[in-house]
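Note to self: keep these together.
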Amino acid sequence: MFLSSLSEYSSWGLLILRLTIGAVFLYHCQGKVKGLMGNFMMFIGYVELLGGLALVLGFLTQLGALGLGIIMLGAMKKKMQEWHVPFAAQDKTGWEFDLVLFGGCAALLLLGGGSISLDAMLSGF
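Structure:
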C-alpha cells in the first residue's frame, strides 16, 4: 500500500515537526525575552528560546519538548480558568493553537528528534 511506504520517511516527518514547532516558539519568545512583560514572562521567554533552539537543532530534543509542553499546559490553564477563553473564537485566539503545540511537543517528547538531528549524530544513531 502506498501510504504504508511513507513510514520509511518518519525521520523527515520528525524534522518537519521539530522545525515548525521550533519556529513558532522562536517567534513568540521575542517580546518576552526583552523583559517588557515582567520577570516571570521573561523566564518563560527564555525557556521558549532555548526550547525552540533545541527543537530546530535537534539537540536535547526531548528535554526541549518537555519544557515547551509544560509551558503550553500552563498557557491552556490560564486561558481556560483565568481568562475564560473558549476553545475557538472568531474575535480572539482560543486555546486550540496551544493544544496543537502541546500535542506536537508531546509527540517529540515520546519519539525524540529522529535520525536527522544533532541528538542522533552525537549518539551514533
